[in-house]
Amino acid sequence: MIEKATTKKISPDELQRYARHIVLRDIGGSGQTKLKNARVLVIGAGGLGTPVLQYLNAAGVGAIKLVDFDKVNISNLQRQVIFDETQVGLSKVESARENLLKQNPYTDISIHDYPLDEANVDSLVGNCDVVVDGTDSFASRKVVNRCCMKNGIPLVFGAISQWEGQVSVFTGKPCYECIFPEEPTGEMARTCSELGVLGSLPGIIGTIMASETIKLITGAGKILERRLLIWDALYGESRTIRTAYRKGCPTCGVETV
Question: Which of 178, 192, 249, 252 does the annotation list as catalytic?
Answer without folding.
Answer: 192
